[in-house]
Structures are given as structure tokens and as C-alpha cells.
Design goal:
The complex is a heterodimer. Chain A is mainly α. Helix content of chain A is about 75%, strand content about 0%. Chain A is globular, with a radius of gyration of 20 Å. Chain B contains 16 helices and 19 strands. In chain B, strands 6-7-8-3-9-10 form a six-stranded mixed β-sheet, sandwiched between helices. The chains are: A mainly alpha, B alpha/beta.
Chain lengths: ~350, ~475
């Protein structure tokens, strides 16, 4: 019974993910024609940059995908409980600052100890950043959409302050931190590839979240609060504000983890503009993945590939990388439309 | 000029709102349209005003000059206004931030604005004899003045047929008197006033003729002088169904005990000084007109929602099962599967790890034992019919072997078969020792189920003698309505 009920559902989800992408690429082609760029070389570069070689796929696409997946899962966790965390940029920044700060001081510890500490610092940094919105929501009913969004700008400012003040490199020349201790860096998965342990962490997080939401009472209560708050309160006797607040707190923590993974896996130091808008693109990733962790994973890889391909397109065909944002925008809008249609 | 509605029918989903209703009103009369909540009064008038499109029937308006207009339906209120019909709704429809004259201009579709509109509005107000501060903002007006504005708006387009939906609900007694005087004058000048109400005293103070609706059919129509309060109450509450012989409950121990209980909700006093008991094995029906505290009382017993006990005590033996009024938002999560919805009601018994195979098995067993027609445990709750949804809600509630069952409008919106089945479930639960307290806005439903009836009047509980008649309940409810 359950098997037959699930199969068409899966097919439909897959269809809903591929149709928007196709449409997005079509619109991109249209724009390229209008702007006078040759279409085929551009699309060719886009493809090569994303999937052209194992190196391109693993070192560019999957590396870009890693933060998008983690942040997409962070958004999913909140929205499953009916809480919309649009402050992932800020929490990402807070997680990155915290991870950098501890990462600079862990030289004496072995990687087995140092890495968990760095990641924990990221989780904590993100959680701290979303604490105020959670309290405002629980105590005063202030919508988290506004409070988390506003804290993004504070997050950007905090990074600027950190890299020009307390965390600035010893040389005091550039607005960036020193590199974190070697033992605090995430190891690369294979020699000669930039793909790091953070991607595995993203996979594990997706699987874990999937199990938590489907298989545990905690996840069920969380989903009930998001899907039917009145019934959850009256029939399930679930404390709405508490469950949504905890979900939001973990959403912020996960976003902070994303920042820690980026610092310890890719940049090894804190920079301004560490995130090229991951916190917003990840919302699209979550929506495209229909807020199911394993689909969010697929959507994250897809968007990571697009970002990687955009870089190649700029290098090889001279087309501004922002053109890919057209694809992303079309994908998001079509995905939302098809989701509405099927709801 | 006359208004005639012939054989009007309208369904909402599976619920019959109007079933071949005919209604006519003639110039110079105040015509009362009487009935309980949900009898179809508002639906009928909304159809006459072009807000609802009927499935069958004919609307005829005979103008003064003899021009007749007949149509299966008005497409919009604008068409109805063009035919000389104006309506005053139960709820205010003015824009609070606009001035009185702006609101009138908006409804009447004037092209004038500012001073010109104010002059025109002042003229109308004077002609109607309904003084109003023309340039005041509506938000600064009292309820009486806001309603006066609604009447002016309805008549601004020279309507000669005025429909009013429970207009006295928001008024103080003196203001009610003024309104009724105005309606008499309006009729005396050759207009038609149709007054929707469930208050008998108003009918006798103002109406020339009366039409009574009950469950979507006309049960009485005629000259008021030939009627008595008793005959009208009879037509409203009905006596056509034989009351089922109550299986005399064997009341056991006290399961619910309220003692001088007062409840508030959102700071508003909802139940005052209520004392009563419900024993295991008996079904207590709560009869009340909407908004008299029954919702708060039942939810306090169920221990849900933000109802606050401000005085007295309420003792309830657990576990309590609650059947909320709104199935699709309060009892079920429509986007969840049946298995998930079953789990929602039995959460406190489960561990942190969910055994979906066991939950699905339980769901399958429940679907079979309660004759719930569904695809299976994985079907979405939204795909079930209303009757099957309610059966699921009951099955889930009974699975916890509750000692107390609290039910709000348990058979509302269900077809007869499903309603019978649910009622039988409630009786069976009581026979098995549960204490049941239920409310229905339909007195027949209360009578069909209850061993004992409590009437709630403005938050005050009135215990009726055992085996009350429809008339006794009707009198109690209507006396309450008149006192409001």
C-alpha cells in the first residue's frame, strides 16, 4: 500500500525539480541571444565548469554546494515548524567569526579534537545570533521574518569589525584574519581535489534531519506545528511557541555551522564577503527541494553546479557570472508555481 | 412594488442551505424573517441582494411603475441595487478610515467627491430622517451611528426594498426602539423592510407579516396578528421529528464537576457562576445561541485553548477526549496522512522513536473497525469526505478510552447517514461509561442525544428539568435572545 502510494509522489517531485531547471536554462539562452552573446559556447562553458570533469564537479560544484546544502537544511528545519529564518547570512557570519576565533588558538590540539571544537563554535555562534529573534517571537510574537533579516546587516558589520579589529591578520594590512591552525582545517577528501570533509558533513546532516523529521516524535511534533498549528495545539496538545522556538534556534545553529565549514574547509581565514549570498540562495535551494532533506541535498548540488558553471562561463566565454542568477531566479519562481499548483 | 423569491435552492457542499424556499414581501410592510442559527435566513437574503447565486429558483421585483424584472439570479449587489434593493449586513461594511460621506459615495457609486459629496449625503440623511455627522470619520462613530450609516448607504440609491440582517444585535434597547420606529416609518411611506432576526419580541413589536425558516425550508408564513409567540417558536424549533426514546442512562460517578465557575477568554467574561455535574454514563447537551459562552465552557472542560478560570472550581476526570467544532483545522491536519493524524491524537503515549509500521497497522485496524472509507493509512486526511473525517476523529478519540468526551457540533455539515452513525457512537460511548458533554447549535441534535439539557444564557447555566420538550428549550433560548 505505502510503496505504491509513494512511487508516483517521488516521480512528481523529480519532475517538479527538472522542469524549472530546463525552463531556467531556456530563459538564460534567450537573454544571451538578446545580449548578443554566442549561446552554444556559453552553455558549453557552463556545463564544463559544473560537470565537465571530476575535478570541476568535485572541486567547484560540490564545494559550492556544501554551504548551500547546510543552509538549505537550516531553512527547512525552521520552515517545517512554520518559522521562516531569512537571517542565515547573519548566522553564517556569526558562525564563521566564532569558528575563526577558536580556530586561531587550536594549534596545539590534534585535528580529532580541534575540528569538532571549530564546528561546535560555528553551531554556537549561529545559535547565539538567532537567540534574540527567538525570544522576540516567543515573548512578544514579533515575526522572525523581520528580526532575522535585520540581523543579517549586523552580521555583515560584525565581520567587517572583526577583520579590521580584533581578528585582523598580524600584518595589519588587509581586512582579513590570519589563517586558522592547520589542525583546525577540514581535511580534503582526495588528493588534488578541493572537496573537503564538509561535504560529507552536509550529507550526514541531510540524512540525520530526514530521519529526525520522519522517524522521531520530536520531528513529528515539529512538522505538526508547521502543517496545522491549531490541530497541533488542540488535538496534539503541543506547545506551539516552544516547538517553533527550538526549531528556529537549531535552524540558526545549522546556519552557523555552514559558516564554520566554509572557514575551516575552504577559506581557512575570515574575509569580508565570505558568503556570496549563500544565505539567500539557500532559501531557493530549500524551496526547490520541497523542504525534504534528501531533495534539498539534490537541489543544493544543482545550485552549486550552477554557481561553478557561472564562474567558468565568465572565464571562458566572457559572460558575466550574474547571468546565472537569471537561471536561479527562473528556477525558484517556476518551482514555487509548480508547488502551488500541486498543493 | 413587490419582492418575490420563488423556489430558491442552494447547497453548500453537502449541506442544504435552502430547499425550494418561496418568499414574498409587499409594499408598506415590515416582514420578519425568523429562524434559528443556520436556518437559511441570511443565505436567502444574500441571494436577494446578489451576493450568493442560487442553484434554482427565480427572483422577481415588481417596480412601482409596473415594470417587472425577473431573473434566476442577480450577478452582483450592484444589479440588486439597480433593481431597488438595499441591504444592511450583520457586520459593518464601512471603511473606518473614511468619512461618512466618503463611505456613502463609495457604495452609491457617486462621481462627486469632497464638498459636493458631503452636500449630497447631507441631503439624503435629511430626507431619511437619520441624522449623521457627515464629515466625521467612521472610526469615531458609535455602534448605533455606524449602523445608521449602513442604513443610509443601503437607501442612498433610492432603494425601496430594505433587507436587514440581525440589525439589533449591536444595539442597546433604546437604540433598538429607534431602529424599529424607523422601519415602521419606512414601510408606512410605501417601502418594504425585511427584518432577519431570531428574537420573537422584536417580531411582535414591528412586523406585519412573518416567514419562519427551519433547516432551509419555510415552516410558516402569514400575517403576524394570527400568530402567538408559541406558534412561532414551534415553527422555528420544529416538532416534526419524533424524539428518539432515550436509553435511560445509568449515571455513575461524577466525572465533571463545576462549582460556581467563572471563565474568561481574552479578558472577556464568558461563563458566570456555573455549577453543574456530568456523571459517567450520561450525555449532557448544552443548548445555546452562538456566543453565549458554550464554546468557552466546553473548551475549559476539555482543557484546551486560552480559557482562564477566574472564580470557582472545575474538576474533570481524565483522560478527556475533545471533538472540536472545526474538523479541518482543529482536529485534523489535512496535509498529513491518516496514520499521522492518528498519531497526532495519541502522541503522549508514544516514545521518542516512531514505529510507523505499528502506527500504520493501528490506523488500518481503526479504519476497518469504524467503517471509515479511505484509501489507506497513507491517504491524506484532506481526501476524506466530511463524514469519514469525523468518523476518524471519533475513532481516534475513543481509542484512548476517555472518561469524559467533550464534543462541539459533532454532526454539523454531515449527511444524515454519517450523522446517525456519529450519534450512535456517542451513545455507545456513554453506555460504556464515558461522561459526555456536547453542544450543538441545532436544538434537535441536542434533543436527539442528550439525557439532560443545560441552557447557557449569557454565560449563565440554567438546568432544564429532565425530558424537556422542544418548546421548553425554545422558550428558554428565545427568552435569552430577547434579553440580550
Amino acid at each position: 500500500m505505502s510503496g505504491t502510494a509513494l512511487a508516483p509522489d517521488r516521480t512528481r517531485s523529480l519532475l517538479q525539480a527538472t522542469v524549472p531547471l530546463g525552463l531556467g536554462l531556456l530563459v538564460l539562452a534567450g537573454f544571451l541571444v538578446l545580449a548578443g552573446f554566442p549561446v552554444m559556447p556559453a552553455v558549453n562553458a557552463l556545463w564544463r565548469g559544473a560537470f565537465g570533469s571530476w575535478y570541476a564537479f568535485s572541486s567547484a560544484a560540490l564545494v559550492h554546494a556544501t554551504p548551500l546544502i547546510i543552509l538549505g537544511l537550516a531553512f527547512t528545519l525552521g520552515s517545517k515548524a512554520g518559522a521562516i529564518n531569512v537571517g542565515m547570512e547573519g548566522q553564517f557570519a556569526a558562525g564563521a567569526i566564532a569558528a575563526t576565533w577558536v580556530g586561531l588558538h587550536l594549534g596545539a590540539l590534534p585535528a580529532m579534537v580541534a575540528i569538532p571544537i571549530v564546528l561546535a563554535a560555528g553551531l554556537l555562534g549561529g545559535a547565539v545570533w538567532i537567540t534574540a529573534p527567538v525570544i522576540l517571537r516567543i515573548k512578544f510574537g514579533i515575526t522572525e521574518v523581520i528580526s532575522t533579516l535585520l540581523l543579517n546587516f549586523v552580521g555583515y558589520a560584525a565581520v567587517s569589525y572583526a577583520v579590521t579589529g580584533p581578528l585582523q591578520e598580524s600584518g595589519r594590512t588587509y581586512p582579513q584574519s590570519d589563517a586558522i591552525a592547520a589542525s583546525a582545517r577540514l581535511p580534503q577528501l582526495s588528493h588534488g581535489s578541493r572537496l573537503h570533509l564538509g561535504f560529507v558533513l552536509a550529507l550526514v546532516t541531510a540524512a540525520l534531519l530526514s530521519v529526525l523529521l520522519r522517524r522521531t516524535t520530536w520531528g513529528f511534533r515539529l512538522r505538526a506545528v508547521g502543517a496545522g498549528p491549531r490541530a497541533a495545539a488542540l488535538t496534539g496538545r503541543i506547545p506551539l511557541t516552544k516547538v517553533a522556538g527550538v526549531a528556529l534556534l537549531w535552524s540558526g545553529a545549522l546556519a552557523g555551522l555552514g559558516g564554520a565549514v566554509e572557514v575551516s574547509g575552504v577559506s581557512y581565514a575570515l574575509f569580508q564577503n565570505l558568503s556570496p549570498g549563500y544565505g539567500f540562495t539557500a532559501i531557493a535551494v530549500a524551496l526547490l527541494g520541497r523542504e525534504r532533506p534528501m531533495l534539498v541535498l539534490v537541489a543544493g548540488v544543482l545550485f552549486g553546479a550552477l554557481e561553478a558553471g557561472a564562474g567558468a562561463m565568465q572565464r571562458d566565454a566572457g559572460i558575466p557570472a550574474v547571468a546565472v542568477q537569471v537561471v536561479e531566479a527562473v528556477v525558484i519562481i517556476t518551482a514555487l508555481l509548480t508547488a502551488r499548483r500541486s498543493a | 412594488m413587490t419582492l418575490r423569491l420563488s423556489r430558491i435552492s442552494k447547497h453548500f457542499g453537502t449541506t442544504v442551505a435552502l430547499d425550494g424556499v418561496s418568499f414574498s414581501a409587499i409594499p408598506g410592510e415590515v416582514h420578519a424573517l425568523l429562524g434559528e442559527n443556520g436556518a437559511g435566513k441570511s443565505t436567502l437574503m444574500d441571494i436577494a441582494y446578489g451576493m450568493i447565486r442560487p442553484e434554482a429558483g427565480m427572483i422577481e421585483v415588481q417596480q412601482r411603475g409596473g415594470v417587472a424584472l425577473a431573473t434566476p439570479a442577480f450577478a452582483s449587489p450592484r444589479e440588486a441595487r439597480a433593481a431597488g434593493i438595499g441591504m444592511v449586513h450583520q457586520h459593518f461594511t464601512s471603511i473606518p478610515a473614511f468619512t461618512v460621506s466618503e463611505n456613502i459615495a463609495l457604495t452609491a457609486g457617486w462621481t462627486e467627491t469632497g464638498r459636493a459629496a458631503e452636500r449630497r449625503a447631507a441631503h439624503i440623511v435629511a430626507r431619511l430622517g437619520l441624522p449623521l455627522a457627515i464629515s466625521a470619520h467612521v472610526e469615531s462613530l458609535s455602534a448605533q451611528m455606524r449602523q445608521r450609516l449602513e442604513i443610509v448607504k443601503a437607501l442612498a440609491t433610492d432603494a425601496s426594498i430594505l433587507l436587514l440582517d440581525e440589525p439589533t444585535a449591536v444595539l442597546a434597547p433604546r437604540e433598538v426602539h429607534e431602529l424599529l420606529e424607523f422601519l415602521r416609518g419606512f414601510a408606512a411611506a410605501g417601502g418594504i423592510a425585511v427584518l432577519i432576526t431570531h428574537k420573537l419580541d422584536e417580531v411582535f413589536r414591528v412586523a406585519d407579516r412573518v416567514t419562519v425558516l427551519r433547516r432551509g425550508v419555510v415552516t410558516l408564513t402569514g400575517v403576524l396578528a394570527e400568530q402567538t409567540p408559541h406558534s412561532l417558536a414551534h415553527a422555528m424549533i420544529g416538532a416534526d421529528l419524533a424524539r428518539p426514546i432515550p436509553l435511560k442512562a445509568q449515571p455513575g460517578v461524577v466525572a465533571v464537576e463545576a462549582s460556581r465557575l467563572s471563565l474568561t477568554r481574552g479578558g472577556q467574561l464568558a461563563v458566570v457562576n456555573a455549577s453543574f455535574q456530568v456523571r459517567s454514563g450520561e450525555i449532557v447537551g448544552v443548548a445555546a445561541i452562538e456566543g453565549n459562552g458554550q464554546r468557552e465552557l466546553l473548551r475549559a472542560i476539555a482543557g484546551v485553548d486560552d480559557v482562564v478560570t477566574v472564580a470557582g472550581t472545575l474538576e474533570v476526570a481524565g483522560p478527556v477526549a475533545f471533538i472540536p467544532e472545526d474538523r479541518s483545522s482543529e482536529a485534523l491536519i489535512p496535509s498529513f496522512s491518516l496514520a499521522e493524524n492518528l498519531l497526532l491524537g495519541t502522541l503522549d503515549q508514544s516514545s521518542w522513536w516512531l514505529d510507523w509500521n505499528a502506527i500504520r497497522r493501528d490506523t488500518q485496524a481503526l479504519l476497518a473497525s469504524h467503517d471509515i472509507r479511505a484509501g489507506g493509512p497513507e491517504s491524506q486526511a484532506a481526501t476524506l469526505s466530511g463524514g469519514n473525517q469525523q468518523k476518524l476523529v471519533f475513532a481516534r478519540a475513543l481509542a484512548r478510552q476517555p472518561r469524559v468526551i467533550v464534543a462541539e457540533n459533532p454532526v454539523r455539515g454531515l449527511d444524515i447517514q454519517a450523522a446517525d452513525m456519529i450519534q450512535e457512537r456517542i451513545r455507545a460511548a456513554a453506555r460504556n461509561g464515558a461522561a459526555v458533554i456536547m453542544h450543538s447549535s441545532d436544538v434537535d441534535e441536542v434533543l436527539a442525544l442528550a439525557d439532560r439539557v443545560l441552557v447557557l444564557r449569557r454565560g449563565e447555566v440554567q438546568d432544564l428539568p429532565s425530558d424537556p420538550t422542544r418548546e421548553q428549550i425554545g422558550d428558554a433560548l428565545l427568552a435569552m435572545a430577547a434579553a440580550r
